Amino acid sequence: MAFPDFVAMIGKVLAIEVTFTPTETSGLPALDEMLVAQSEYNSLYNATPVPNPDLVALGVKFGTIKEFMETEAKKHIGA
Asked: Which domain of life does the UniProt lineage start with (predicted)?
């Protein structure tokens, strides 16, 4: 999910205005280089499927970010 889509989903779930403002640089060259490398290689942790089948086999329950926003974040934001 792209950041603008993610932000739109958060705004919709919480019924508040949320904006995403990208920046050209973080101000730290090493961090900028790391983010470019991460972008080039399509994330850093893409070898393990989500949800991780080993964790599912152990009984770990997973939720979505949308579910988290609806059940947890709303309480703290007052939306």
From this structure: Eukaryota
Q: What is the pTM of this model?
A: 0.62
Q: pLDDT tens digits, residue range 20-74?
A: 998 889 999 999 999 888 878 876 677 788 889 999 999 999 999 999 999 999 9
- Kindly report the CA angle at 53 between 50 and 56, in degrees rounded to 5? 100
- Cα-based torsion angle of the residue sequence 28, 33, 37, 38 in order, rounded to the nearest 10 degrees: 0
Structural contact between residues 13 and 70, judged by C-beta atoms closer than 8 angstroms: yes
Residues 20 and 24: their CA atoms lie apart, in Å, by 13
Q: Specify the number of domains making up the chain.
A: 1
Look-up of token digits 């997973």: 62
**Domain residues for 25?**
3-77
